[in-house]
Amino acid sequence: MAKRYWLFKREADHFDMDQLMKKGKPVPWKNVRNFTVRNWIRDEMKPGDRVLLYQSRTDDPAVLGIGEIAREPYPDPAQFDPKSPYYDPKATKEKPIWYMVDVEPVKAFKKPVTLAEMRANPALDGMMVLRKGNRFSMTPVEPEHWKTVLAMAGER
Questions:
Q1: What is the tens place of the pLDDT at every residue in 45-54?
Q2: Looking at the domain that runs over 5-152, which CATH code has it been given?
């Protein structure tokens, strides 16, 4: 199967691209609680897929860099922990509901690509993250949109 492209959003207080790059190892991308996104994780995401890492809830939301899905999707352990805010009493180890992936940092952009820049670029028309009302924390990215965002960041 061909490599897929994704955009993963995280709020500024939960995501620091510099720290991610310093760790230099895969980090869990967890606590997704939306069924559409869960289905993408469980059914479509594969190791080797590339990810645009997007920081939201900041004065200047932007794509800050690239990551790669490092392993097969697996059950999010928080769904089984009654003390977790992400606990789901309907989930069992035999029938998990929520899944997650690990993302390995690949590259931090020298020039982040802001939401405003993305909205202003007609080549990104139709990109899911730019659609009115989109609230998904993870979205698929078309190959041509991937290439455009990388070009905007000064990457190849």
A1: 999 999 999 9
A2: 3.10.590.10
